[in-house]
Design goal:
Elements (H helix, E strand, L loop, with lengths): L2 H18 L6 H10 L4 H25 L5 H20 L4 H20 L16 H18 L4 H11 L4 H27 L6 H22 L2 H21 L1
Helix pairs in contact: 1-2, 1-9, 2-3, 3-8, 3-9, 4-6, 4-8, 5-7, 5-10, 6-8, 7-8
Length: 246
């Protein structure tokens, strides 16, 4: 290991703490950090997805243990997303086409979360959408997650909240579990191309797990819903800016 690897690990700790507080695993932060320090692009997707699996496993356990989850929402979403994430992870990334568009969508979603009007997810009525709507939504997000090396939470969370499919904390629980299965599927597809993980993963894994412990502790028990929404908006702005500026 070289000194730069330890700096990367420290920044990944901070990214994992912020992202896991809203049920995310931090892949877009890890990708940004690695890009900043010139990590070879071929290794970036596999590394980010591996770290996502670790943090999302922790986040899923803690949110589900606390009772923040909606099975009727989760099952049809992952039924569509798992095969699509595997396919996306095995494909070359046509970033020139979708990165600016996705970045703009994330920035818009962040702005909507910060808008002073009440979100549907903060109102009294939470409704379950039809499974035949959720399956293709999951497939689209799964494909994007595999292509970009993320778990899909940056796309799923704002959609759930804006459409009123779950409360803020239930959204975190569903997103964490969704990210876990999609990251695993995308990683399997990506390893078919890469064959192995970079050795630096042994340094990055403890860092993101420590960050995940801090972030999930805050998200499950310490942060009010309004602050969770602000944290999610910040996550989306970071991810959107990364996609628009790189």
């Amino acid at each position: 290991m070289i000194p730069t690897d330890y700096l990367i690990a420290g920044l990944m700790f901070l990214g994992a703490a912020l992202y896991s507080s809203v049920g995310h695993a931090g892949a877009s932060a890890y990708l940004s950090i690695m890009a900043l320090f010139g990590v070879p692009p071929l290794a970036m997707r596999a590394t980010a997805l591996s770290l996502n699996v670790a943090v999302a496993s922790l986040a899923s356990f803690r949110y589900l243990r606390a009772g923040f989850f909606r099975r009727r929402l989760f099952v049809p979403l992952v039924a569509g997303s798992i095969p699509a994430a595997f396919i996306g992870g095995a494909l070359p990334v046509p970033s020139e086409l979708y990165r600016p568009l996705v970045g703009a969508v994330l920035v818009f979603a962040a702005a909507r979360l910060l808008w002073p009007r009440e979100l549907k997810a903060e109102g009294a009525a939470i409704r379950d959408p039809a499974w035949y709507l959720l399956v293709p939504v999951g497939a689209l997000i799964g494909l994007l997650s595999g292509l970009t090396g993320t778990g899909g939470g940056i796309f799923l969370s704002p959609l759930i909240l804006l459409l009123g499919w779950a409360s803020v904390r239930d959204t975190s629980g569903v997103s964490a579990a969704f990210i876990l299965v999609n990251s695993a599927a995308g990683l399997l597809g990506n390893l078919a191309l890469l064959q192995r993980l970079p050795p630096e993963i042994l340094l990055y894994l403890p860092a993101v797990l420590a960050g995940g412990l801090v972030g999930t502790w805050l998200g499950v028990a310490r942060l009010a819903s309004t602050w969770l929404l602000k944290a999610l908006a910040l996550v989306l702005l970071i991810a959107g800016a990364k996609l628009l500026l790189t």
